[in-house]
Amino acid sequence: MLTDQVAIITGAGRGIGRVIALTLAEQGANVLINDVDEESAQRVAAEIEQHGHESLAFVADVTDEAQIERMVQAALDKWGRVDILVNNAGITRDNLLVRMKEDQWDAVLDVNLKGAFICSKVVARPMMKARGGRIINIASVVGLIGNVGQANYSAAKGGLIALTKTTARELAGRGITCNAVAPGFIETAMTQQLSEEAREALLGQVPLARPGTAEDVAAVVAFLASSEAEYITGQVINVDGGMVM
Ligand code: NAP
Asked: pTM to 2 decimals?
């Protein structure tokens, strides 16, 4: 249980982030819902409050340090602490390497990698003071094995895995753990854009022969945030139906 703990989840207005937020709230955490889209952040915060838990919607772009400072301060003002950060915000701008535009590269590296760096840096201060905390980065199996058409995304997720390990090493002395969850093929809006052919090809690589759900990912995040996981840091846990082993 995460009773009275405070969690910040980035990109929680929909998809995997939304389900992570609902799952942590169900376990008793107070949850700050971050997103760039105000309406979806408010909707998820309202959904959590309807279930009788505390929540706060906060619109901020993870690539903007000043906005993230204000977001973390808002959580501290409301609840007095931040125990858990889930760096979930992510985007894709797919293209083959030789056709990839610099702006596609920059946008994906900015949100998926720089965003996680900024949020981790800002949240590390109150966590260090409290001598405890959990940082959980949502990476991807693509960060381990690469993927055609995703030079930017795979580099960002590979970088996020390396950032996870350095964060884990730097903050371990203060009782803060940092781990990554690497989902495989998960059914969300991000993957609904795939053609039937691409879906079949992807599923062919999954020994458990089904796409994952946001709930599959959220369950591992909840475990990493729990006291049972206090001796785990610097790890990457794949949630991919056996795609990568
Ligand atoms: P999603 O449905 O597209 O949700 C991503 C959320 O992040 C959206 O609500 C989006 O807001 C928000 N966001 C985008 N840019 C942001 C920014 N600069 N600041 C704050 N929030 C921002 O994606 P998902 O499928 O749930 O993916 C969640 C995470 O899992 C991502 O890191 C993704 O890379 C990773 N992942 C997904 C899969 C998969 O199969 N779905 C597999 C491996 C890893 P708007 O939509 O309003 O812009």
From this structure: 0.98
